[in-house]
Amino acid sequence: MTYVALVLSSLRRAIPRTDCGLTLAFAPKRITTRAIPERQFKWNRFLASADIHGNEEVASNVARRSDKSLQSGREKRRKFIGMAKAVDRGQWAVTYSPGGSDGSSFVSKSGLPDLTKTFCVLGIESSCDDTGAAVVRSDGKILGESLALQREIHEQWGGVVPALAKNAHEEKIDEVISDALEKANMSINDVDAIGVTVGPGLEICLRVGCNRARELAMKYNKPFVGVHHLEAHILMSRIPSFENYPDQGALQSSVRANDISARAMDFPFLALLVSGGHCQILKCLGIGKYSIVGGTLDDSLGEAFDKTARLLGLPVGGGGGPAVEALAKDGDPKSVKLPIPLQKRKDCDFSYAGLKTAVRLAAEKICVERGVKSVDELPHEEKANIAASFQHTAFRHVEIRLGRAMDQVQKEDGIKTLAVVGGVAANKELRSRLEKLCSDRSEPWEMFVPPPRLCTDQGSMSAWAAIERLLVGSSDVAEDQEVYARYPFSFAASNINEP
């Protein structure tokens, strides 16, 4: 046993000091780190400021509390093994429910704009690796938008590096906001409210946008809305097509400009949310009211695309999805046999971890057959076949699970409209296949998909989600707003009107 291990072993009964939300897990031969709950983190911070050296009673109590907390955490995790992630089953301390326990008791905590006429919202987005801002009018018109991409920053690392993303957000946030306002020919004084993404996402990145939005809302006394990132994606399917309004001038003073019936699609509807971090099927009942019909057990569809892109040596700075989609166009989707996940499981959940492994093993087998040492050495045709086969199998998995969900909600609720949202919804092959899925049903469904540029993260989605919240009388307090890496929809609110 090394000297360091001996020292650590002597401190086994005390919780170590931590300033980063991690606690040391001691073992005779190694040191590992383990994430701890926020309440445990606060307790550790308290202990770090207390003098427990030489106090065996205090140290013993500390050890018992620590062990009990860790054991409780393990039991909770075991309880949800085999179930979809990011779904509230009563285990989360913070959930999203702007309408309260009944789902419809909305409160304007920081005021509302004048809802008798059109109003404008500044939206800010910084949940991951791109900095976005936009000014959107309540009739759906995007007046000005700006987006700072970080592809070149993360390209060399093969994925998003949170610390680098945070620094880039800090460098670009003011520039992006100013650019969006300038394109809208407005100043911050002219906007009527401010909305910003507060979760889920990378916490250190979310904080950059949230802090700036809070400062602006407090300084200029504007109504403030903390936007849920996934709800913002979903609600982009409802943004009106501005070209549908024949008389734009009349809208400026018309109450119809804020008429919720002018939305592209009405509640309730079914949504397929597919992105780099999430993969869910949701029954959308209203603002803040979403029932999870199916979710991923492990990885998201977007993450599977990213991993496949890296395997094939493709550029992933702008996301692996577009790179795999482009390569797949040159390949045969049936050339590489891959298993469709969860064939024996008759529910609506997803799983992509096994498919990622199957793609890697198939690629390694092809390398052996072709007499090359790595996938990088395979010819373009072979890589294209792997990409096409992966994409075909991944989308077939979506078709099967989504088809089952469509049967369920049509039978139970009479729903026959589908929204396809999130970054992966920009994939043309997925759009085409889901359109066919909807049209081939005995009772055809109507499908809504935002334009490709509005599927990915940008400021307009935050602004529009804030508009939807404001129109039902809901706003938040800027001073109190926190950000959340995990921010599931509330179980209580989402199951209102459930059969």
List keywords for this structure.
41% helix, five-stranded mixed β-sheet, 16 helices, disordered N terminus, 499 residues, alpha/beta
Topology, pairings included?
Elements: H1 3-10, E1 22-26, E2 31-35, H2 38-48, H3 56-79, E3 120-125, E4 131-137, E5 142-148, H4 151-155, H5 162-183, E6 193-199, H6 203-219, E7 224-228, H7 229-235, H8 248-251, E8 269-274, E9 279-286, E10 289-295, H9 301-311, H10 320-328, H11 353-370, H12 380-413, E11 417-421, H13 428-439, E12 446-448, H14 452-455, H15 459-471, H16 491-494
Parallel strand pairs: 3-6, 6-7, 8-11, 11-12
Antiparallel strand pairs: 1-2, 3-4, 4-5, 8-9, 9-10
Helix pairs in contact: 5-6, 7-15, 9-10, 9-11, 9-12, 10-12, 11-12
Which residues sit in consecutive blocks of at least 5 with pLDDT less than 50? 1-43, 45-53, 243-256
> What class would the helix/strand composition place it in?
alpha/beta
Biggest beta-sheet profile: 5 strands, mixed
Q: Kindly report the spatial arrangement of strands forming the biggest sheet.
A: 5-4-3-6-7
Number of strands: 12
Helix and strand sequence: HEEHHEEEHHEHEHHEEEHHHHEHEHHH
Quaternary form: single chain
N-to-C span: 61 Å
Q: Could you tell me the mean pLDDT?
A: 84
Assess the beta-strand content as a share of residues. 5-15%
Helix content: 40-55%
> Quick one: overall form?
globular
Number of helices: 16
**Radius of gyration, rounded?**
25 Å
